[in-house]
C-alpha cells in the first residue's frame, strides 16, 4: 500500500511540475519577422513563439501553453 501511495505521489509531482517542459528552453530572436515594432522570439527547444516589445526577452518556456 505504501508503494502505491509513493507511486501516486511521484506521478502527481511529475504532472504538477512537468520538469521536462521547464528546462532546455532556448529562445532565439527571429530578426526576419518584425511586426508592429515587436520582436519575434522562437524557442529552439520546443518551437514556441512569442512576440515582445523591443528590448525585452522571454524568460519562461511556453511549451505548456502550446496544447
Ligand atoms: Zn521552450
Keywords:
single chain; 67 residues; alpha+beta; three-stranded antiparallel β-sheet; 2 helices; 30% helix; rod-shaped
Structure characterization notes:
The chain has 67 residues and is α+β, with helices and mostly antiparallel strands. It is built from 2 helices and 3 strands, in the order H-H-E-E-E. The protein has helices at residues 2-17, 19-22, and strands at residues 27-35, 38-43, 49-53. The chain has a 3-stranded antiparallel beta sheet with strand order 1-2-3, with no helix packed on it. A hairpin with a 2-residue loop joins strand 1 (27-35) and strand 2. It starts with a helix and ends in a 14-residue tail after the last strand. The mean pLDDT is 77. Bound molecules: zinc ion (ZN). Residues 25, 43, 45-46, 48, 61, 63 line the site of zinc ion (ZN).
List the helices and strands and how they pair.
Blueprint lengths: L1 H16 L1 H4 L4 E9 L2 E6 L5 E5 L14
Antiparallel strand pairs: 1-2, 2-3
The structure holds zinc ion (ZN).
Radius of gyration: 17 Å
Number of strands: 3
Are any ligands bound, and if so which?
zinc ion
Summed over residues and divided by their number, the pLDDT gives a mean of 77
The end-to-end span amounts to: 35 Å
**Order of the strands making up the biggest sheet:** 1-2-3
Give the low-confidence spans. Answer: none
Helix content: 25-40%
Order of helices and strands: HHEEE
Sum up the overall morphology in one term: rod-shaped
- Secondary-structure content class: alpha+beta
Beta-strand share of residues: 25-35%
Report the biggest beta sheet as strand number plus sense, adding barrel if it closes. Answer: 3 strands, antiparallel
Total number of helical segments? 2
